[in-house]
Amino acid sequence: MQLQLLLLTFKQSATKMATPRLLLFFFFYISSVCIPSSVGVTLRTTDKIVWANEFEPIELTCVIESISTNNPRIEWKKIKNGVPSYVYFQKKISGDLEHRAQLREPANILIFNTTRSDTAEYRCEVAAIDDQRDFDEILISLAVRVKPVAPRCSVPGSVTVGTSTELRCLENEGFPAPQYRWFQNNEELPQDPKTSLKFANSSYIINPDTGGLKFRRVRKADAGEYYCQARNDAGHAQCPPQKMEVHDVDILGIFLKCFAAVIVFFCLVAFVCHYLRRGCFHKKGSNENNYKWPAQRDGVDYGDADEGHFRHKSSFII
């Protein structure tokens, strides 16, 4: 249509005045419209970031928008931890996707059942030797979601009214990391107890990232069966219910324990005093006669104790 209008305009202008400038303009316009320009190979993808659920199929798209070469060389590479490896090379699937994927025309890769090990970057490369731009590539990031397994839950069996306690929940298999929810008697606890009339007086705090459920002051109404649920985009799992009992403060029990402790203390004191009076804790030999005879002077012999008379020594001076 544009070409017909241009020819009509050209004829009208040519009847009035045919100039070289008009002829030159007409030549370049016809060349740009009717003669195709030479282009290189160009790739695109529908999604550069792709999420897939484990054990489900996923297709990585590599669309060839323009190309002149009839039989281009197509390759796919998997890049994990910075290390590339072939996925599609020399017209066949290789590597850890062998028997689990296929190339779909013109250059898409279909993975039949994705696993968590397929999480990586994938690069589509197309080489076209007959094109002016003979090479192009595109990078796609694949992340495989993994459903959580049953989390490990820790619920105290018995707590006392007014004390603090914490319930724990942990799961390490799910990807991305799951969020945690807590249930009491099959009813989900709201993240903020103030938003619910039933739990408005509760003092608990839920951490959805770590799975902790902490009670600052336990009430009688907090008794019941508890279980935790771990959830992400791939699914959810939960632990078996566990019962938590809440008891009143045992004043009589506390009194009896204190009374027993006082009795034990006084018995111990009486035992120590009794043995102190008997001298059982004195040092051995403390009652023995420690009298020491005076030392004898040099040169004087006082004689034996059984002698009946005094005997002078040769050193005695008259």
TrEMBL record:
InterPro entries: Ig-like_dom, Ig-like_dom_sf, Ig-like_fold, Ig_sub, Ig_sub2, JAM-C. GO terms for molecular function: cell-cell adhesion mediator activity; integrin binding; protein heterodimerization activity; protein homodimerization activity. It holds the Pfam family Ig_3. The keyword Cell wall biogenesis/degradation does not apply. Its main location: other. It is a single-pass type I membrane protein. This is Junctional adhesion molecule 3. It comes from Cynoglossus semilaevis.
